Amino acid sequence: MKDKVIVITGASVGIGATLAREVTKRGAKGVVIAARREAELAALAKELGPTALAVVCDVTKRADLDHLRDRALERFGQIDVLVNNAGRGITRMVSELTDEDIDSMVSINIKSVVYGIQAVLPHMKERERGQIITISSGLARFPLAATRSIYAASKAAVNLLMGTLRMELRAAYPDIHCTTVMPGVVATDFGNNALHGGYDSRQLPGAQPVEEVGVVIADAIDKPVAETFTRPQMLELQKAYYSSDDVTKMESAPPFFASPAATR
Ligand SMILES: NC(=O)c1ccc[n+]([C@@H]2O[C@H](COP(=O)([O-])OP(=O)(O)OC[C@H]3O[C@@H](n4cnc5c(N)ncnc54)[C@H](OP(=O)(O)O)[C@@H]3O)[C@@H](O)[C@H]2O)c1
Fold it and tell me: What is the reported pTM?
């Protein structure tokens, strides 16, 4: 950690801000925090101290990701880790989705990840090392909540982007690591910030403390892995789901959640 410069998108609040605190505590050489809200970023940068750099960045814009890379290199001369963390949920079932809903989820959750990867990859290839971490979701693996529809689908797409990137790089660049992190429900403003509003993640039963998620991601920087859930129960659920001979049985019982509004 001590030699590493870590760039984190979506770092004004929530998981990204918590991770920035965790890697700073572990002695990272530099942490570049990026998001749209300038005041929140400035306050966090002040709290983190001289190793932090705040950069305003909208991840739906490719030029902003290129600018973020340039600012990080200008200040620190290197980028060791990019954490594609910025993202947004949605509270709408498949039957209700509009074109705008779909475009928004694709833009914030998928295009942003490709923009981030493409911004830093030439630098990492030149150094023949680095790590790209993408914060996906357990929802990428199962249809856990009917209302998350296109959000879950966008995160499933991101898992495959990361897997295929890992395969692309493996032979020529074995020291560029690609890590997909899949949290469950985390106690942040994610639910409140979802497109069309929604449930407050903090009030959902068993919401994981955000600090625990920060520790799991920082551990994946200290010791890179290809994929990790932030809770072992999710891995158990995945095993059960994919070995089930009838997934509809699993989907009809908790923790799978069909919104009451989904019934006729
Ligand atoms: N919390 C959960 O239950 C949960 C579960 C699974 C996965 N995740 C994933 O974890 C990641 C972080 O979520 P969170 O829980 O920390 O949510 P959050 O509290 O809502 O924070 C989201 C962060 O993303 C940033 N962001 C949103 N749109 C952006 C844009 N267009 N450009 C740049 N930054 C943008 C926000 O900053 P600004 O508004 O300042 O731009 C904020 O810093 C997301 O990818 C989410 O999908 C969360």
Answer: 0.97
Count of other CB atoms within 10 angstroms of residue 38: 12
CATH number, domain containing residue 232: 3.40.50.720
Q: Which residue CA neighbors atom 36 of ligand 1 most closely? A: 10
* pLDDT band (50, 70, 90) for residue 184: very high
Domain that holds residue 75: 5-262
Residue ID of nearest Cα to ligand 1 atom 43: 10
Contact (Cβ atoms closer than 8 angstroms) between residue 256 and residue 237: no
The SS3 assignment for 142 reads coil
Mutation probe of ligand 1 site: the residue of 40, 65, 136, 190 with most atoms within 8 A of C-beta = 190
Instruction: Work out how many domains the chain is built from and give that number.
Output: 1
User: Is 115 an active-site residue?
Assistant: no
